[in-house]
Design brief:
Distance between the termini: 31 Å
Largest sheet: 8 strands, antiparallel
Number of domains: 2
CATH architecture of the largest domain: Distorted Sandwich
Strand content: 25-35%
Shape: elongated
Helix content: 10-25%
């Protein structure tokens, strides 16, 4: 790998206008006072890295559930899925991955399957690391039906500074494990609701890599 490839990552098209705006601001600040210009330049670089979209190597072994987001595991507990999904009235095992403003924010499918429901719900913008963010914050949820008929839920949750959730898929669409399905600006959380009987293989505080880190293994599953 060339040194340039280590630092220069592909950027998602959604980020182009933001990077352009930050760069324009940096030029204005530079004209006002040089040190301000350097601060603007640093913010432009941060914005570029926020929208980075690196390639990932997704494990292919059947039965694996991979992380849908970069970040750290903030919650592992049983919880009732969002009611708009119609997934279950009983608590399911939930793993939450918190994304800071320094993480890559491209979201990837945790399993392969067909999207059977996409449900958006407006809400607040509380700190996404809080448990009540799952109920109160703006969110967008997907239900994915796997080849064996079992379903998995994944919810994009807006955070304290996030102001837009983007979803790139729709109901009826197929998803490959590790395929990009969304993005959240600028700091947020992903909740994964595992099928009944599936236990997570991760720990609180563990670092996740979207599309690569294994969250759980579904027994006798084909995902």
């Amino acid at each position: 790998m060339r040194m340039r490839d280590t630092f220069l990552k592909p950027m998602h098209p959604e980020g182009r206008r933001f990077v352009a705006a930050f760069a324009a601001l940096a030029l204005v600040l530079y004209a006002i006072w040089t040190p301000l210009g350097w601060i603007g330049a640093a913010l432009t670089v941060w914005c570029y890295y926020f929208f980075r979209d690196p390639e990932r190597v997704t494990p292919e072994r059947p039965g694996l559930v991979v992380s849908p987001a970069d970040g750290t595991v903030s919650l592992i507990e049983r919880a009732v899925p969002p009611p708009e999904l119609g997934l279950s009235d009983a608590p399911l095992m939930r793993v939450s991955v918190f994304m800071s403003v320094f993480n890559c924010h491209i979201n990837r499918a945790p399993v392969a399957g067909r999207v059977t429901r996409v449900a958006y719900k407006p809400g607040k913008f509380l700190n996404a690391s809080l448990d009540k963010a799952s109920e109160d914050n703006e969110r967008n949820s997907l239900m994915i039906e796997m080849a064996d008929g079992r379903v998995l839920g994944v919810t994009q949750i807006a955070g304290l500074v996030a102001r837009r959730i983007l979803c790139f898929t729709e109901e009826g669409a197929p998803l490959r494990r590790g395929e990009r399905f969304g993005l959240i600006r600028f700091g947020s959380r992903l909740d994964i609701y595992l099928p009944e009987g599936t236990e997570p293989d991760v720990a609180l505080g563990q670092t996740m890599i979207a599309g690569e880190t294994v969250i759980a293994r579904i027994a006798d599953g084909t995902t």
